[in-house]
Write a structure and sequence with these properties.
Helices cover 11% and strands 39% of the residues. It is mainly β. The strands form 13 sheets. Strands 21, 23, 24, 26, 27 and 29 form a 6-stranded mixed sheet that branches. It has a 6-stranded mixed sheet with strand order 41-40-42-46-47-51, with helices on both faces. The chain has a 5-stranded mixed sheet with strand order 2-5-10-7-8, with no helix packed on it.
């Protein structure tokens, strides 16, 4: 419903300007509708109408708290619109059940016992014709949707197809039901090579989403870990990141800690002997890596000091080869480093100890399959020399830091344009932020780095004259090559190469981690029986819990909900928390509830001659007063987040000085919707919480920057909110849009440092 406080005697309005109060014609009798039943109706001239002119028929039913119900309205004559109203101001409505369809469907969990009212109406005034309305107990009915009961520990195979049921933003979706043990932790993985996987789980008190498995090897597969709720059942929805994506997938679900052939490669497999050629086939049904690639594993017995030449060749997929063994030994290769064999994979390794080693034949990308040939031989002297030249000098692990001296000299390897070059390689991890520096007083340094997936980063001059510096986040697990060279050809001289973990650019490095978020979080669902809202109080509580779990919420923070969220209560909380926040901290003011707009006088902050407010339990706080409150802060950064109608009108007032960023759920003249799909009071509230809990950490470096957070929110709004209706205070219709005002906050400025994953 719209989070808008109506003025005077008017009631709280429903979405898209459809007023709950009937206007014009006499009110028709309200027909009872039974669960499992349906009835035909006819919207026609002479029917009751909404205040905005649409004909309407009204039906009622008795519901109970926690009951899942689905109301469907179908018609070949009109563009159906269904509204559901109930106790404590409960409101939910729907225009189109699926993208491109004109039928309507609402599927919700009821908040309280009592009488609920269904309004069967149309999207536009004046539409007339036949329809059918039905009421069912249970979840939404979707069109041609796949899924079913999840088989634990085995692959559950499915396909997203044109004609499947869709999410509101247009993504095809299959729903799977998992029954399990309450309190048990489960891991669900969605693997596919056909589309960018997206997985979410819903259950009693449970909601979690995942786009990309951050533990995967740069893949777009999805992985979720969750605890089974008390009723022992959840719904897993398998879908895609973008609309219209289709293809085959595998859903794997296991109890946490359980390993099966479907999810974890076996510790040992067929024996691989020196001099042997193995012809194999990667295919659906093989074991998979955690990031979704099919794999076959072979056991090779070796002795300390053995030098082994492994090759993986295929004309059907991009081979990827790696080996693990005693003493935590591991080595991997994507493409033959000698350059002799294209995208085929070759590894020349020296075994560190006696024992069994596991050789993994797999692919670079998930879902690739086909025939392959794997060979294992003793490495020849020529091959070893080639490998040493191609792989360059290996450097220690970055965790311990690197500080090495080298020199460019006649006789070194040269680049095509004549610059001498030294190369260093290291094994990197996805999300690791590293800093590389080359210093020399004898030549103009040049530094570049190459890595998996076409990763590239170059630097000529860093902040210190002719020295070079790269500060980067590694995009994937794998081997990276660093080349130290000169700006001009034939330059020689000594240099110092320093590398190690990085806290980011100098601007970012100064941002401290830990409980640095000083927050005032306000959410109101209970407005005393007039204009009550669903889930908005929970928005504040859930955000506080998410920030606490990430270890960033300072104990001085205050959460106010319902009756405690008075005007004076918010003023006092703001003053109390602000007084304890210092120049190394971030101050956050979050609000989810009703917002309003009032006539005012023209000034540069109000070019529409209207001012905006947030509605608290006993009054309102204006955009002007909020600006005054933010003017009292002395913090590194301040953030205002309002999920309420007309909230964008606060931007010009509050985001008026350096270090303030504003996030608002709607433009200043438009309303905002409750995000019933996510059991959240608002879309911004929901996505802010998931973003700050880690999903906005797009590069995996455990820093969420202003650029990452705002990009994440924009993407989520584009995917989930682009077709959510909104209206102006005088009834003009539009769509809800996120408003971001970063003011003087730069895209690389750190909002928070989250706990390392």
């Amino acid at each position: 419903m719209l989070k808008m406080v109506a003025r005077g005697a008017a009631a709280v309005m429903g979405a898209l300007g459809l007023a709950v109060a009937l206007g014009g014609s006499p009110v028709m009798a309200q027909e009872r509708l039974a669960f499992g039943g349906s009835t035909a109706g006819d919207l026609a001239d002479g029917d009751s109408t909404l205040s905005s002119g649409e004909y309407v028929d009204v039906y009622t039913f008795e519901g109970r708290a926690g009951q899942q119900v689905t109301v469907s309205m179908t018609s070949g004559d009109v563009d159906a619109y269904v509204m559901l109203r109930g106790p404590s101001g409960f409101a939910e409505e729907n225009d189109d059940r699926d993208a491109g369809l004109t039928d309507a469907q609402v599927s919700v969990r009821l908040p309280a016992n009592g009488t609920y009212r269904i309004s069967a109406t149309t999207y536009q005034p004046g539409e007339a014709g036949r329809y059918r309305i039905s009421l069912a107990e249970g979840g939404a009915v979707t069109t041609a949707e796949g899924g079913g009961a999840v088989t634990l520990g085995s692959p559950n195979r499915g396909q997203l197809l044109d004609g499947d049921g869709r999410l509101p933003a247009g993504e095809y979706v299959d729903r799977w039901i998992l029954s399990g043990t309450p309190g048990q932790t489960y891991v669900a993985q969605l693997n596919t090579g056909d589309f960018d996987a997206y997985l979410f789980v819903r259950g009693e008190g449970l909601e979690a989403d995942n786009d990309d498995d951050t533990t995967g090897r740069g893949s777009t597969n999805s992985r979720l870990e969750f605890v089974m709720p008390e009723d022992g059942q959840v719904v897993l929805a398998t879908t895609s990141y973008l609309g219209e994506e289709t293809g085959a997938y595998t859903l794997l679900v296991n109890e946490a800690g359980t390993q099966t052939a479907s999810t974890t490669a076996p510790a040992s497999g067929d024996r691989l002997r020196l001099g042997q050629v193995v012809n194999g086939d990667l295919t659906e049904g093989d074991a998979t890596l955690r990031s979704g690639e099919y794999t076959q594993v072979f056991t090779l017995s070796g002795s300390a000091g053995d030098q082994i030449d492994l090759r993986l060749i295929s004309g059907n997929f991009d081979p990827y080869l790696f080996i693990t063994g005693p003493d935590d030994f591991s080595a991997a290769n994507d493409d033959d480093p000698s350059g002799e064999d294209g995208i085929n994979s070759r590894l020349i390794v020296t075994l560190p100890a006696d024992g069994d080693y596991q050789v993994y034949a797999t692919s670079y990308a998930p879902g690739e399959s086909g025939d392959f040939r794997l060979t294992a031989n003793r490495a020849t002297g020529t091959a070893i020399a080639q490998a040493e030249t191609a792989q360059a000098s290996r450097v220690p692990a970055f965790e311990t830091g690197i500080d090495m001296n080298g020199s460019l000299a006649d006789g070194d390897q040269a680049l095509p344009d004549g610059e001498y070059a030294d190369r260093y390689t290291f094994q990197g991890r996805a999300g690791e932020r590293i800093a590389l520096t080359v210093e020399s007083g004898q030549f103009d340094t040049y530094l570049f780095m190459r890595g998996p997936g076409g990763f590239t980063n170059d630097n000529d001059d860093g902040p210190d004259g002719t020295n070079s510096r790269i500060d980067a986040v590694l995009p994937a697990d794998g081997e990276y090559t660093v080349t130290v060279t000169s700006y001009g050809p034939a330059e020689t001289g000594r240099y110092r190469f320093v590398a190690g973990p990085s806290l980011g650019t100098p601007r970012q490095a100064g941002v401290q981690g830990g409980p640095r978020v000083f927050a005032v979080m306000v959410g109101i669902s209970d407005y005393g029986g007039t204009g009550d809202l669903a889930y908005t109080a929970d928005d504040a509580l859930k955000l506080a819990e998410a920030l606490r779990r990430e270890g960033v919420l300072n104990p001085a923070s205050i959460t106010l909900t319902d009756a405690d969220a008075t005007v004076q209560g918010v003023r006092d909380a703001f003053a109390e928390v602000a007084a304890q926040a210092g120049p190394d901290d971030i101050f956050l003011f979050f609000y989810s509830g009703h917002g309003s707009q009032h006539p005012g006088s023209f000034n540069p902050s109000e070019p529409d001659s209207r001012y905006e407010t947030i509605a608290l339990r006993d009054g309102e706080i204006t955009d002007t007063e909020m600006a005054e409150l933010f003017g009292t802060l002395d913090t590194r950064m301040a953030m205002i987040v309002l999920d309420s109608c007309f909230s964008g009108g606060f931007a010009r007032n509050v985001v008026s000085r350096p270090g303030v960023i504003g996030l608002f759920s709607s433009e200043e003249d438009l309303t905002s919707q409750v995000a019933g799909k996510f059991e959240a009071g608002g879309y911004l509230a929901h996505f802010l919480r998931t973003g700050l809990a880690g999903e906005a950490n797009m590069d995996g470096d455990d820093m969420i920057t202003a650029g990452e957070l705002t990009t994440y929110l924009r993407r989520k709004f584009a995917a989930e909110v682009s077709d959510v209706g909104a209206e102006t205070i005088d009834g003009q219709r539009s769509y809800q849009n996120l408003v971001v005002d970063r003011g003087g906050v730069q895209v690389d400025d750190v909002v928070i440092r989250i706990a390392a994953r």
